Amino acid sequence: MSKKIFPFFFILIASLQPQTIHDLIKPINLKEAKTTTVPLCDIFYSEDYQIEFLQNKFVNIEYNSAAQEVSLTPHQDFSGITLVSFKYFDKIYEIPVKLNKTKKYLFTYKPKTGEKQVNLFGQFNSWNRQDLPMKDSDGDGIMEIEIPLDPGRYEYKFFVDGKEIVDPENPIKVPNGLGDYNSVRIIEEEAKDKMFLHILGKEKSSSGLTLKFYFEIPDRDNLISKESVIALLDNQKFPDELIKVNGSEISLLMKNEMLKGNHSVRIAVNRMGKHSNIQTVQIIDGEIAGSNDKKTLHDQIIYSIMIDRFYNGDTSNDSPIVHDSLFKPANYNGGDLAGILQKIEEGYFDKLGINTLWISPIVDNTNNAYREYPAPHRWYTGYHGYWPVSSTKVEEHFGDMNLARNLVEKAHSRNINVLLDFVSNHVHMEHPFWKEHREWFGVLELPDGRKNLRLWDEYRLTTWFEPYMPSFDYIGSYDALEFMTDNAVWWLNVTGADGYRHDAVKHVPNEFWRMLTKKLKRNIELPKKKKLYQIGETFGGIDLIASYVSNGQLDAQFNFNLYDVAIPTFIDEKASFKLLDYQMQKSFQVFGYNNLMGNIMDSHDKIRYMAYADGDLEINDGRANEIAWTNPPQVDNPSSYDKLKVYMTYLLTIPGIPIIYYGDEIGMTGASDPDNRRMMRFDDELNEFEKQTLEDVSKLIHIRKNHPALRYGDFLTLQADENIYAYIRSDMNERILTIVNKGRNNQNIDLILPAIYQLTSAKDLLSDKVFKISNNHISLTVDGLRSLLFKLE
Q: The pTM is what?
């Protein structure tokens, strides 16, 4: 196949020389008084790690050459950002290392008579019930623990002698969706110095390209020294003689000979034991990323399709499963690969603005119905694709391998990439592996007599989803590890697809993802010069999610921590965007602005946003499972479509990769599984509000597609309160201002824009109206349940 049918994934692969570092080395986040150990393969890929680490005055470095891992321990007085240097094939490379000192907060619990063991657990430790034991340090009968927390909203509970208990002293609690409640603690941001490194712009000259930045601390002396600037060109220090500092302005000169090929420039400032945001500028063949037609992974706009529920292109393969207790929502409904192919050829995705499709698993599934273990024990089929009974065959309800290949080829011909969905955690008991390789799997029975079923956190790496879904034991079986990683490589080779969405990532050990990614780089990415994209699904704390995101594992995961705050913020009229902004900043701290994390409004595992917006369900509503069967929601209020478009504006203008779940574009509603997986509707099947929503969402998608600042830019918050969320995203090409009003009433706002930007006008990208910016202020009215998008000049 020619290169041009894989438009997104070629441009960031370097030559095949073994001494070349192909990956952009990501920052490592350290913690106070703790050692962080990182395998070298998570830092960059190589077949031969000839490494020599150099001393660092802020961080103690211990390199284990046998294990090929490095341990980093910060000195007690270190905070901010530093560079850990290492020699690799006679060149010096840098690892950015960050440490943000965080204030500790006290949690207390007074045990009742007879209560002995008390642990704290919550979102801040991925709901681990064991690693935060509380103690009565001063003998007053009160158990205590202090933990470091960034500003934000945290759900938590106490684990008392094996039982979960909400905080009796905290009146703030929310339903947890499991028939119980979680306590909530909100950490407000303290008044302290905020520093921000702004993008000023670029200048071309005969000598090269100059990148300009401005460092700001409000109401403080902004002057900085050259020594406080941390700048990298790819993975090496930016030449010192090409860095200029003038007061608060920083200039980096990229000489003409430095502009050849593809590069990343990163820059941050250290000041008073803290560090600024890290700005990243990608340069492709001498041009700033986004200013030409060459694409990267950051340009993806993903559309998620559940094959069986999208479009029926071939009625000859429908054949729903016959069972006396099986209902239509849990059976095959007729969608297939031919249906997706037809919509590709009709130009549906072109018109919508989509350039990447993620399709549910195409692997063969059981042709029998099985009963769900938890009450009320309903019967389901494998229509969703997550009950595999083969490792090489395509599900006959969907088509065959030739059709799968044809779909990928047709998508590529329209500059659309395809991500497959890979199931690595388990198989269905009808899979030959369960009979032929029983040693590859764990056991269902625990030593204490319990069944190891759905113990998502307690037995994270061994739990089974259902009694008929054996979970692989990758720790105990190297053969299973080898086979399943080889199988994932095989599927991409045989279909020509461009990467994976990976199921149930946290239930599979890191060793699996490291082996898989190494094989993908060795067998596909480097020899074919094709950059794949791998995104995982993990429900848990941000540290757990981040533990799978590295150069040696996955490119990204779904940003569920951001989603979990965004949904209640947009739905509750009294909830402040301030809490969402705290979580946004936390996400940047862990993943950076230029992250590839997946941002969602809906998914096949989540209640649809419209069910909340229309008032049919509340957040964490325990009725959602039953309502899905007995009283499926319908959209009654036209204003609910406006609420959806406000959320979609947010989704399509924040850092990360937007993921549109099929039906989002028309405002489809739905309660829990399987009601959130209704059959997609098109054209004459839509009502007037759905047609208008489709048109408006498509406009928003195309705005993201056409404006690089929304794909590569930074993020500067201007206002975050109960109604308004306003922020600017800037890259070296442009600045885009987003304002969303989730309230029902009109809001008069007066935004103060950074004076250093020297802005004079704002063009509304939705209406083409031009607003004047006077003395760094823009004053306007935002209608209720509306959004505004401006290009600032």
A: 0.94
Long-range contacts of 553-557 (CB under 8 A, 24+ apart): 553/42, 553/510, 553/513, 553/514, 553/517, 554/502, 554/505, 554/513, 554/517, 555/297, 555/499, 555/596, 556/595, 556/596, 556/597, 556/598, 556/656, 556/657, 557/505, 557/597, 557/598
Q: Among 151-155, 397-401, 668-672, where is mean pLDDT lowest?
A: 151-155
Residue from 668, 748, 736, 661 nearest 704 by CA? 736
Q: Is the pLDDT of residue 577 over 90?
A: yes
- The predicted-structure confidence for 697-726, as pLDDT tens digits, reads as follows 999 999 999 999 999 999 999 999 999 999
Q: Determine the length of the chain.
A: 793
Radius of gyration of the chain (CA): 26
Query: What is the topology classification, in CATH, of domain 104-187?
Result: Immunoglobulin-like (2.60.40)
Delimit the CATH 2.60.40.10 region(s) of the chain: 8-103, 104-187
CA–CA separation, 452 and 460 (whole Å): 10
Q: Over range 225-252, report the average pLDDT.
A: 97
Q: How far apart are CA 362 and CA 352, in angstroms?
A: 24
pLDDT tens column, 24-41: 999 999 999 999 999 999
According to CATH, where is 2.60.40.1180 located in the chain?
713-792
Question: How would you class 791 by CB atoms within 10 Å of its CB: exposed for 0-12, middle for 13-18, buried for 19 or more?
Answer: middle
Question: Tokens 């879904």 belong to which residue?
Answer: 469
Q: What is the pLDDT of residue 169?
A: 95
Strand partners, 213: 199, 250
The CA–CA distances, whole Å, from 695 to 13, 678, 691, 700 equal: 37, 21, 6, 9
**The architecture CATH gives domain 713-792:** Sandwich (2.60)
How many Cα atoms within 13 Å fall on the side-chain side of residue 549? Answer: 27
The helix-helix angle for 401-413 and 337-346 (nearest 10°) equals: 20
Kindly give the residue spans of alpha helices, DSSP state H, lying in 306-437: 337-346, 348-352, 401-413, 432-436
pLDDT band at 208; cut points 50, 70, 90: very high
Determine the pLDDT at residue 150: 84
Read off the tokens for 69. Answer: 């891992």
Alpha-carbon distance 678 to 306, whole Å? 10
Q: Is 35 left (phi over 0), alpha (psi -120 to 50) or beta?
A: beta
Q: Does domain 8-103 have CATH number 2.60.40.10?
A: yes
CA distances from 685 to 620, 674, 681 (A): 31, 21, 6
Strand partners, 379: 371
The DSSP string of 177-194 is: SSSSEEEEEEEPPPS---
